Amino acid sequence: MGRFYYKQNRIKQLRAFCYTAQLQSMSRAAEQMFLSQPSISLLIQSLEKDLGQKLFLRKGPRITLTAEGAILFEMSLPLVEGLETLPESFEEKCKNSVVGSLNIAAVEAIILYTLPDIISRYTNTYPDIHIKLNNCSASIGVEKVRNGEVDFAIGSMLNVPDDVVYLPIYTFEPVLITPIGHPLLENKHVSIHDISQYGLILSPQHMSTWQMVDLVFKQYNVDYKVNLEAGGWEVLKKYVENGLGVSIVTDICLSGKEKLGCMPLNEFFPKRTYGLFLRKEKVLSPAAREFIKCIDPNAINQFSAKNDLIKKKHIDIHTVNPI
């Protein structure tokens, strides 16, 4: 194999390539690397020349990986991520300490009701870690995971992309909440038809809770009325307390201190599972690894086992049997 040119720029080439592949944009990659867009383009062109392969297909503003580019991305991303986390990993080994930063995407329910205690324990142990929380839907959080904007995401999502690992962590029960003294609380057994007689207060239509409620009511062929859309469960609970309707939530948002009536709905609605979303084969920083251990000590082992299985499959696929 001939010698590659620009060897002194190999790391820059691969970083530019990986950022562009993740973000599907040279301009956004340039922002991440604090370079100009022409510089990113030149780095990628030189890498394509070195490798003798076209790595991206360019159609106007859109940019996608070629088949060869996808292979290189799979091979180079762990190397680039390893280099990105090298300073923190090196200090962890030398000083037995965890430093750096942590970027997490999570749905509002997790940020409000489960993360405060975890972050408190984590920051007491690792006070030098800077944590950034992104409050967003699960779908947006997963996209941030895929393009490398966050270390991991926490949420609930039915359809997980092939390049993302989902590790379920929390399970919560579906419940009906009503104002105190509401007529539905007088029934020992509440049906979907009973609930439909009262106006509902639900999260916005694009959220998974609305979609779940809509699906169940349709399965029972029962019409329902939505009195109010309320973004955020704290807002939703307050309007139910004030008598503006009833709602269907999961008990993650209930502390027991609310002025609400509550009835289980396990008979009609599925339990809600929340978990971690991580990109397959991601190299976790020490800060991310220790935070995940705070959430669930077994999660790191599960992620490592899934990655080992992925790597084994890759080896099996690419192995050529001798003749």
Short description:
The protein is α/β, with parallel strands linked by helices. The protein is built from 13 helices and twelve strands.
How are the SSEs ordered, and which strands pair?
Blueprint: H1 10-23, H2 26-33, H3 37-51, E1 56-59, E2 62-65, H4 67-84, H5 86-95, E3 101-106, H6 108-113, H7 115-125, E4 130-135, H8 138-146, E5 152-155, E6 164-172, E7 174-179, H9 192-196, E8 200-202, H10 208-219, E9 226-229, H11 233-241, E10 247-250, E11 260-264, E12 272-279, H12 286-295, H13 299-318
Parallel strand pairs: 3-4, 3-5, 8-9
Antiparallel strand pairs: 1-2, 5-12, 6-12, 7-10, 7-11
Helix pairs in contact: 1-2, 1-3, 1-4, 2-3, 7-12
Task: Explain the overall architecture.
This protein has 13 helices and 12 strands. With 323 residues, it is an alpha/beta fold. It is elongated and about 75 Å long. The chain is 46% helix and 20% strand. The longest helix is centred in the C-terminal third of the chain and has 20 residues, at 299-318.
Which key terms come to mind for this protein?
single chain; 323 residues; 46% helix; 3-stranded antiparallel β-sheet; Arc Repressor Mutant, subunit A; D-Maltodextrin-Binding Protein, domain 2; disordered N terminus; 12 strands; elongated; disordered C terminus; alpha/beta
